[in-house]
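Tutorial handout. Part one gives the primary structure; part two gives the three-dimensional structure as tokens.
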Amino acid sequence: MALNTRPPDSKQFKHIRYFPHNPNLLHKVEQNGGGLNTKIAVTLTTHVGSMWAAYLFVGIAVVGLAAIFGLLPAVAVLLVVWISQTFLQLFLLPVIMVGQNVLDRKSQLQAEETYNTAVSSYKDLEQIMQKLHDIEAKLEDKA
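Part two.
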């Protein structure tokens, strides 16, 4: 997927110094080029950040509580401890952090694009105001 980084070759676009880009498309290209680790991190971050994952974690906590009260075998307590301490903290948390960094990149691209567009618009407005001032001065000289 190629990005259009230049304006079309047309006389109507000669005055444009900055041609806007689509940050969504750029982010998608970056994600596709990120490789397997990026895809795994984004997928896990998206799924762990869902309500279904929250329900799963509540279920794990309820099983642990039931095991503590002796309603389940002691091995259930050990299993809940292993899942919560080893799997969730040592595996999922770093992966989620990587996924959040990848997903945050889209916000960074959008902010950068908004800034560049605003600066370009400001410069264009300055030029327009200068031209209007010049026209106004010429009209005053003729009067």
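Part three, for discussion. The chain has one domain: 35-142. DSSP finds four helices and no strands in the chain.
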